[in-house]
Sequence to fold (383 residues):
Amino acid sequence: MSAEIILCPDWGDIRMIRLIVSVGLVSFLLAFSVPSSADPDEPPGARLVRENNCAACHQIGMAPPRAPFRNGPSLGRAGSRIRPDWLGDYLSRPVKLRPSDAARMPDFRLSGWEVTALTAYFSTRRSGWPTPAAAEKAEGFVGFEAVFSKLPRGDAQRGRERFEQLECFKCHGDPDRGTSPVDAKLSEIGPDLRLMARKLTRRGMAAILFNPAQVFPGTKMPSYFFDSGEAMDEDSPQQMADLIAYLKRLGGEGERPGDVRFLSARRRFPDATAEWGRRIAGQLNCAGCHEGTGIAPRHQSEVAVPLGYRNLPRFWSLERLAAWIWRPSNVPMHERMMRMGRMPTFGFTSDEARQIASWLLSIDGERRRRMGGMGMMGRGMMR
Fold:
């Protein structure tokens, strides 16, 4: 795993983002949460629609609109966890962070002004971590903020030794040698720690090591230093600080803030304020996949056209639909009518796009295919 983030010194030259819209379940009738395991009878196209949370913005087939499953990371603490430079680079040109995650961040082709505004807005998201209840405090439990406020300075060399002792390389590979995990299942492979070092602030890294499940619910990463707020060793704070120092060194900048590109972008786009970022996040329906955005998710009928055979103009073939899914374009008239953002690109392969197109063409049936292209523009005409 040696995925490298591509830094973009000039966000103005970037035209969009690949926002990961992780998927609510949509096995055609869109009625469940995420399945515990893959359904062997599920069509590949249906699986791709489910994994990439198309239900966050679209009604699927004849099923009534339902609240989609939101499995993107929470953005409620993005301002304290994520460095602005990294966030701006990622919004400009996202990469897959976790190989085990089937969902992917789509590309909304954001302009430099939009990237700057979104970065400014999400940098304001700084909700605090929960504190232990009185009974837990009596048992000696402590909260993250209390631990972090007293975290000592770490030693990177000792942190490397701790990395080896904990066998972190089994899931993350060896970042010093640039090797990937050996004999690890896909579901067990963690993100590239060099990329994480550039992404996370010291506080963000400490929060994950303090309680991984509190940051990423459902993660398989164990807690090595604290158990429900109780130190697992009298030297746990120092051990954690050492590991953080080693991981931060992987980013090549130590613990320096160094958010030069974001500050430069703010000077270039003085009108790209946090308030405008909030509006853009609402238009793009970021809340459809992420919690903690500070905005409410939009109802599917208010966001984008229903997906299905009945919506496709008569002259569209399977090949044409697959080509559009593979490399979609905007529908300006629809965007103006619905007051929404744009159709993103998910980075599907041509084969994946054909699988999705084949499934979409199967879910409503030939008899409902009566309308031309303008039928796609009004949700009242779709029912």
User: Anything to note?
Assistant: Residues 134-249 form a domain with the Cytochrome Bc1 Complex; Chain D, domain 2 fold (CATH 1.10.760.10). The beta strands are 18-19, 106-107, 226-227, 230-231.
